[in-house]
Design brief:
The chain is mainly alpha-helical. Helix content is about 80%, strand content about 0%. It is built from 11 helices and no strands.
Length: about 280
């Protein structure tokens, strides 16, 4: 029961954060298009967001360890809320700043929450480390479910209610506020080992260059992510002229991703013994 309560407190905060994040996916390009920006201008906004995520990703671990994991999760809810509020502006510079804040928020989302959980699981509650994958596996499942549902919800507000492409971003804000409130109320603070950023980066670089397999894996991952980012940018302008409900299309993409993940887990299960080369 103690472990289940601990999991529930984690899922309560993390799933709200994921829902707020996924709600912003289906109508981002459409929003910029709605504001009459050209494709090249929209591309620059996207690049600023991706670059911000990369740069903040380099320092996010050190920042989270120094600031505290709980505070970092609360900071995530604040920065992402401001990011959503910038979507109300037609000003190009404001929208660029919003995407930069979105990059920071994404870096925090994929570092602070898991770091908080692992520390609490092992250090504070002394639960068996073997239980950690079960928690993250279930979180990954709910992440897919939430992504599918978020597309439908975004479509409901943007198109069925006719509130326009900015509506899903406004719906995200209450979820982000609840994320911060629940983290503040239910989570204890914890910190990581304070290390110099330069040392962290150098250790990572040494690991990358000293092991050919790590370098190869990183290269493959980078190429894959590049393709995904190109797809993220292009799918809306390619499909939108045909008038599909973008939220439902987004949900279909996420459902296909969930099916793919499930097929992979089945393929490598003991029953089929299909292992990666």
């Amino acid at each position: 029961p103690a472990f289940l309560r601990f999991q529930r407190d984690y899922y309560q905060v993390y799933c709200l954060a994921l829902a707020a994040d996924w709600l912003q996916g289906p109508y981002l390009y459409k929003l910029y298009q709605h504001y009459r920006f050209l494709e090249g201008q929209i591309a620059i906004i996207y690049v600023c967001g991706f670059a911000s995520s990369v740069l903040f990703g380099l320092v996010s671990t050190s920042l989270v360890d120094w600031l505290g994991r709980k505070k970092s999760c609360i900071l995530f809810s604040l920065t992402y809320s401001v990011c959503c509020l910038t979507k109300l502006s037609w000003d190009y510079f404001v929208l660029v700043v919003g995407r930069i804040l979105g990059g920071l928020s994404t870096a925090l989302l994929f570092s602070a929450f898991e770091a908080w959980y692992i520390h609490e699981h092992v250090e504070r509650y002394d639960f068996p480390a073997e239980w950690i994958p079960a928690t993250f596996s279930r979180a990954a499942f709910w992440n897919n479910v939430i992504a599918v549902g978020a597309g439908v919800v975004a479509n409901f507000f943007a198109e069925w209610l006719g509130l326009g492409p900015v509506a899903p971003f406004m719906v995200s804000i209450p979820l982000l506020m609840l994320t911060g409130i629940f983290a503040m109320k239910n989570w204890d603070e914890n910190y990581g080992k304070k290390r110099a950023l330069s040392k962290t980066c150098m250790d990572g670089l040494k690991c990358l260059l000293s092991d050919r397999r790590v370098l190869l894996l990183g290269t493959i991952q980078a190429l894959f992510e590049s393709v995904i980012y190109i797809f993220i940018f292009l799918w809306t302008p390619v499909l939108d002229p045909h008038g599909p409900p973008l939220g439902i299309v987004f949900s279909s993409f996420m459902a296909a991703s969930m099916v793919g993940s499930s097929l992979y887990r089945i393929a490598i299960s003991k029953r089929y013994h299909l292992q990666p080369i």
